């Protein structure tokens, strides 16, 4: 039977038996390459006892299930984003008749997915439906998207910036930053990057905010030469 998990690190400790002097740390991936490498390096690697080996396999299976559940939750968030739907409702309790789109989607997925259904019925620590989890999913999905956009911006030859003003639900003014560039498929794309709260809508304030974002994305001075256009809306300098 193959080794059930990938050995990620080992610490050599003193001992009489060199083959028994390793402490193991395991990841959650099913892989035999690390085990084979250790055999080549040390000739003989101590085998795990059967109970511990089964415990590792069970732990890996639990992690696989959690990843599957998390992927379904992310799919529900992506669905809401694709159709510009608010995730949260005013009352997200179990008894609520209108818990919000996200909770409704999760309930629908559980009705057609036995793994998701069992998770929602039996989970005591993490169900993935709370407002905190929804907000954290949104935050980390945005971070991953930004990282992808930054990589594309650093690899493109030309890019343009767009800035516009809008107000949030609390009527606070915030600036919207959008980048337009040519991607790796030679197609022109526009990508929303972030919101930024501004003290006013003056040209100096908007330009300082844009420069701050550009300095973070393109730290090298030579990279800023790829910026070929800027466009604004609602800036004071454009209103007059």
Automatic annotation (TrEMBL):
It comes from the Eukaryota. Residues 59-240 form the DUF4371 domain. This is DUF4371 domain-containing protein. The lineage of its organism: Eukaryota, Metazoa, Chordata, Craniata, Vertebrata.
């Amino acid at each position: 039977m193959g080794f059930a998990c990938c050995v990620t690190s080992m610490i050599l400790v003193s001992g009489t038996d060199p083959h028994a002097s390793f402490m193991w740390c395991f990841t959650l991936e099913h892989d035999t390459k690390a085990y084979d490498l250790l055999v080549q390096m040390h000739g003989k690697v101590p085998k795990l006892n059967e109970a511990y080996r089964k415990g590792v396999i069970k732990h890996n299976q639990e992690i696989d299930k959690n990843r599957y559940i998390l992927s379904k939750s992310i799919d529900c968030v992506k669905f809401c984003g694709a159709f510009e739907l608010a995730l949260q409702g005013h009352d997200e309790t179990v008894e609520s008749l209108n818990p919000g789109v996200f909770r409704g989607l999760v309930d629908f997925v559980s009705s057609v997915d036995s793994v998701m259904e069992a998770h929602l019925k039996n989970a005591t620590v993490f169900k993935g439906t709370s407002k905190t989890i929804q907000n954290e999913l949104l935050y980390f999905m945005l971070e991953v998207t930004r990282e992808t956009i930054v990589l594309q911006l650093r690899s493109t030859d030309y890019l343009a910036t767009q800035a516009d003003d809008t107000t949030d639900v609390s009527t606070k003014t915030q600036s919207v930053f959008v980048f337009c560039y040519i991607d790796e498929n030679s197609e022109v794309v526009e990508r929303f990057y972030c919101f930024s709260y501004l003290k006013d809508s003056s040209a100096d304030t908007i330009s300082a905010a844009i420069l701050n974002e550009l300095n973070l994305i393109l730290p090298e001075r030579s990279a800023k030469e790829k910026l070929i256009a800027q466009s604004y809306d609602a800036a004071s300098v454009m209103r007059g």
